[in-house]
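Incident log, support desk, overnight shift.

02:14 A customer reports that sequence design results differ from what the structure should imply. Their input is reproduced verbatim below. On-call engineer (initials T.W.) acknowledged and began investigating.
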């Protein structure tokens, strides 16, 4: 017994080290809360600006339709002015174009810089102008990028280390998503599933604190209700509806692949239009969107009201195909304008329309399924989200929080699983992964400029089914100029030897010259089947 106690004492962590760890974690959580407060304030203000933009646009359309001769020109003309200004502002900070989430991911792997004092005002004003004028883009991408910028601002203000700065940026990004949709848990899951893929106390605790604080700030400003305010109680769906949800999952997977392919095509179209100034591109696209919106105003903007109508079953199934196609095409054209705006909300609207269509048609064919359209629309949103972004946990949690309903969790998970399998079978890649790699390839960026000989430590998480699982260290065939220094496994660190076996869930700490970091990230991500991982520190 005495021998056991001696061994335990030898391997125990000194009390002083534990206190320093807890003190550091507490300090980090406090700064994470500040980042969440900043992200919540900016995100709520952005949502208010977009709401005012929708009201202004709808009022203008009502007034314009009272003037038959030239009223149809009012929205295109004013929208074009707003688009031109948004395009000019975006040219002052090109990193704010589009969603902004791929830019945040590039920042987290140290392949981009985040100038917070430039990103926040440009993203806010240009995004509010472009989306408010009618582009089919959403608020979540700008909210995530501005939240990340808030995290960077807190880090700069307190002089934090590079490692802590990256954690704060990720926490601020998750808090931005929480503020955009009143979905704090979705913000946490988004950080863990998409941005960090790391369940360390700093990633999890910081994201949780920041998202909760951001949600509290947002709810204090905008109100406590879910994003989609549904009044009627939804019926419980019997398991006899399972075949219909199988069809919905297959359709969501196929159309999700079409969305991703079309998204790349729209960006290539934008590249071909690069000979025109950004402000002119945005001006022309918003002029066309204004003409379209005069005849079909439901497709303009993010589409929040259209999603609520689809969730309530108020959109006739005969009109849904037209709305779906027009909203889809307008989203692609809007994405090629090169101004701030996300794709979350438009794709959720498309998913709600798809689910509503399947629900209404199934109700016509099978009378017992009538009255279940809201549940079909909700599940369609989640399935389409998962098919496009390949974030199943984020999608499920986000839809539950946005609708305030978890009664159909089994069918929700089943449909999302089918959509995921279908889109994987079709070979379509996740949207943000494609956008990030495209952005880095176009810019031909391998790393930030750094002094010769400067080294960088990278972290790679070994995922299930990857080539590295079960292999020995000597058989990994690591790239040149790459040194594996430690393996973190279940809270403990292992010094690797040639005969050390790599296991699922291991975190590989790799040292490499900074100028070759991006190339090595790309090679090792294929071996570990993980996306680009964060860079931990320079030394």
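02:41 Re-run completed on a clean worker. Output:
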């Amino acid at each position: 017994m005495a021998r056991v106690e001696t061994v335990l004492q030898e391997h125990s962590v000194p009390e002083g080290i534990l206190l320093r760890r807890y003190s550091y974690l507490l300090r980090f959580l406090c700064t994470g809360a500040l980042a969440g407060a900043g992200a919540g304030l900016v995100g709520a203000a952005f949502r208010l600006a977009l709401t005012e933009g929708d009201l202004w646009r709808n009022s203008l359309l009502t007034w314009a339709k009272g003037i038959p001769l030239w009223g149809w020109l009012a929205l295109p003309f004013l929208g074009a002015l707003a688009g031109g200004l948004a395009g000019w502002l975006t040219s002052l900070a090109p990193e704010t174009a589009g969603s902004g989430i791929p830019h945040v991911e590039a920042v987290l792997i140290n392949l981009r810089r985040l100038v917070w004092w430039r990103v926040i005002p440009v993203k806010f004003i240009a995004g509010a102008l472009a989306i408010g004028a009618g582009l089919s883009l959403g608020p979540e991408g700008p909210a995530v990028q501005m939240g990340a910028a808030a995290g960077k601002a807190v880090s700069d203000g307190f002089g934090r280390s590079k490692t802590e700065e990256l954690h704060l940026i990720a926490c601020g990004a998750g808090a931005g998503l929480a503020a955009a949709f009143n979905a704090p848990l979705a913000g946490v899951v988004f950080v863990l599933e998409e941005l960090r893929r790391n369940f360390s106390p700093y990633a999890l605790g910081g994201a949780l604190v920041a998202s909760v604080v951001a949600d509290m700030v947002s709810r204090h400003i905008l109100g406590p209700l879910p994003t989609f305010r549904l009044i009627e109680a939804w019926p419980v769906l019997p398991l006899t509806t399972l075949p219909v949800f199988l069809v919905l999952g297959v359709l969501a997977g196929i159309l999700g692949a079409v969305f991703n392919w079309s998204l790349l095509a729209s960006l290539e179209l934008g590249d071909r239009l690069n000979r025109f100034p950004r402000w002119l591109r945005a001006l022309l696209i918003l002029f066309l969107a204004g003409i379209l919106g005069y005849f079909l105003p439901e497709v303009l903007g993010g589409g929040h009201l259209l999603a609520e109508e689809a969730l309530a079953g108020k959109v006739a199934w005969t009109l849904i195909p037209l709305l779906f196609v027009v909203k889809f095409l307008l989203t692609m054209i809007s994405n090629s304008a090169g101004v701030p705006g996300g794709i979350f909300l438009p794709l959720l609207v498309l998913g709600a329309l798809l689910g509503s269509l399947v629900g209404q048609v199934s109700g016509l064919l099978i009378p017992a399924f009538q009255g279940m359209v809201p549940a079909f629309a909700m599940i369609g949103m989640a399935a389409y989200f998962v098919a496009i972004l390949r974030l199943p946990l984020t999608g499920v949690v986000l839809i539950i929080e946005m609708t305030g309903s978890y009664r159909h969790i089994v069918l929700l998970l089943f449909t999302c699983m089918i959509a995921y399998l279908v889109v994987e079978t079709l070979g379509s890649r996740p949207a943000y992964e494609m956008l990030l790699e495209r952005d880095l390839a176009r810019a031909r960026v391998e790393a930030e400029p750094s002094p010769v000989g400067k080294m960088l430590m990278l972290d790679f998480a070994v995922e299930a089914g990857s080539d590295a699982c079960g292999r020995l260290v000597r058989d990994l065939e690591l790239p040149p100029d790459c040194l594996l220094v430690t393996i973190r496994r279940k809270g403990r660190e292992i010094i690797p030897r040639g005969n050390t076996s790599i296991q699922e869930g291991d975190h590989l700490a790799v040292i490499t010259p900074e100028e070759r970091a991006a190339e090595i990230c790309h090679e090792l991500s294929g071996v570990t089947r993980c996306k680009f991982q964060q860079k931990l520190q320079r030394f």
